[in-house]
Amino acid sequence: MNFSMGLLASAGEQKLSLHQIWTLATLEAKLIIAVLAIFSIFAWSTMAAKAVQMRRAKRLNFHFEIEFRDQKSVLDISQRKLEVEGCPLFSVYQDGCREIDVRLKAADGTRKTHLSLKAVEHIKRSLEGAVARESLKLESGLILLAIAVSGAPFLGLLGTVWGVMDTFGGVAVKQKADLAAMAPGVSAALITTVAGLLVAIPSMFGYNWLVHTLRVLTIELDNFAQSLASRLETEFLKEDE
After folding, report:
1. Residue 13 in this model has a pLDDT that exceeds 60
2. Is 127 helix (H, G, I), strand (E, B) or coil?
3. In whole numbers, what is the pLDDT of the chain averaged over residues?
């Protein structure tokens, strides 16, 4: 407590600097701040990586959908052996085309020109599975941001409560309860709450933006799967089988 009073006196009428507050913080508070710093690193790296991934997916989806609409046959792009890495629509399209190829192969090794209604239903289920897989790929990693948003404030609050408890314990030992004795310890305790909010607030904004973008991309995947299934029925379905 004498050391705290010395820091307060050296500051005069000026506010305590962050360095002085850090010096006054307890070991537990410093450990919590270190954990929050790790949370922050993971949160920012996740936000940056997912933002790049989703922006790239959105751009590639846009160009691929234009290319798909210009094709005369459903299998044209597949037959050209094109590869579009990182494009969710192309991955769904590839899975659909592979299932179509399997269903078009006859038992004797020849290739059929039409598909039965049952075969089309199997292809539709394959497309639904592909949409789900691509959605999960886009969603992966968002749990880290959710943990940062919900957990960081509570970690900060834990450090603050612990620091205040330590401050009051020191006051009880010294049997001296005045503002000059308590202010440094309380200030040092509150720094963990500030650190928790500094982690949680950017993570919350980033998480909400990424979830919105994910929802848009998922709707695009669903719409594309329905469009692909519709063209498939128009081109290959033979209703009398």
Report:
1. no
2. helix
3. 82
pLDDT computed for residue 42 by the predictor: 92
Hey, what are 176's tokens? 């001296």
Which of 55, 65, 131 has the alpha carbon at shortest distance from 92? 131
Is residue 29 predicted with pLDDT exceeding 90?
A: no
How would DSSP label each residue in 73-123?
STTHHHHTT---TT-HHHHHHHHHHHHHHHHHB-TTS-B-S-B-HHHHHHH
Name the β-bridge partners of 111: 105
Q: In the chain, where does DSSP find H-type helix? A: 2-11, 18-24, 27-69, 76-79, 88-104, 117-139, 142-174, 179-236
Q: What is the pLDDT of residues 166-183, one digit of tens each?
A: 776 666 566 665 555 566
Higher pLDDT, 151 or 79: 151
Q: Taking the CA atoms of 195, 200, 203 and 209 in sequence, report the sign of the dihedral they define.
A: negative
Give the pair of three-digit tokens for residue 34.
């270190």
Distance CA 158, CA 144 (A): 20
Give residue for tokens 């957990």: 151
Query: Rounded to whole angstroms, how far apart are CA atoms 209 and 39?
Result: 19
Q: What is the value of pTM for the model shown?
A: 0.78
